[in-house]
Amino acid sequence: MKAILEIIVPVFGMVAVGWVIGRTSLLRPEGLRGLTNVTFYAFFPALLFRSMSHVRIDALSPDILIVFFGAGLILYFLMLLLARVLGLRFSERAVFALSATFCNGVGIGIPFVSYAFGEKGLVPLLMIISVNSLAMLTLSSFLMEIGAQGAGQTHLLRKLGGAALAMLKHPVLPPIFAGLAWSEITALVPGLGTPVVIDRVLQGLATAAAPCGLIMAGASLAHVGLKEHWQTAAVTAVFKLVALPLMVWTAGRYLFALDPLWLTVATLNAAMPAGANVYLVAQLYRTGVGLATNAVVLSTGASIVTLSVTLLLLGVHPG
After folding, report:
1. In a domain, 256, yes or no
2. 205-229, pLDDT tens digit by residue?
3. Does the pLDDT at position 85 exceed 80?
4. What is the CATH number of the domain that holds 91?
5. In the chain, how many domains are there?
6. Measuring CA to CA, which of 109, 116, 120, 211 is 20 to 30 A from 263?
7. Dihedral sign, Cα of residue 292, residue 216, residue 300, residue 61
8. Cα separations (Å) of 300 from 24, 54, 155?
């Protein structure tokens, strides 16, 4: 239990600090946007690049992607059926399903795994993150476009193409692939490596990634607040925090026999709360905004308990 507290308290303690700051005049919405931009475009890219620059591509296993997204997609389509039973409109069903399957692997997951396992735990996590938005957001955007009245085929293809391009420009994906590419290049050229001066700059930026990301997450929750449809959002939170990690762990443990560390990281990422992109996508399509907002807020608050239980069951000790 002491080891669990050593992970949970620092992570959610900083989220709480961010929430308190967000409730005051110290960090207004425009200031939060500035902090978010600096965190995503400077701190996180440095952390991701440094982590992946030590990883060889042939050391990566696709099994973790099959486990995670296999379980995620199964749950996604089950949630679509449940949403239909609950009487939600077609486009709202996609928001409902996304709220139960899209993980906050960047804002909370990266700092969380960094505190628990160090850089070695980031490798499997970044593999999942690199595919997560591409798979889940594209699928949800496709369904929301179908549900949008008057959306023709040309309009649909243009929207999906724009979404794919936006994801390639996202500050998370490029540094992951750049780090992998640099790792392969340095392995082929003897004596080549990241210059010490540059690496120290990257290290300094990377050190700020975790605390700033957590403070940003807390401040964002303070600005978002609760909205309508909290009962439906509570249903998605239960599936997100309980069903998805259980499905991922079962598949990784019994069907694919993942490496223990990789299985633990995949399970913990599945147990993360719903990511902020859920309500950003809902706002973009102007559907299910209240549902998405509450799903993020409720799952983040409840994850303090569920992540503690997950860590305890997995027998995790901080690395």
Report:
1. yes
2. 988 887 887 788 788 778 766 666 6
3. yes
4. 1.20.1530.20
5. 1
6. 211
7. positive
8. 20, 32, 35
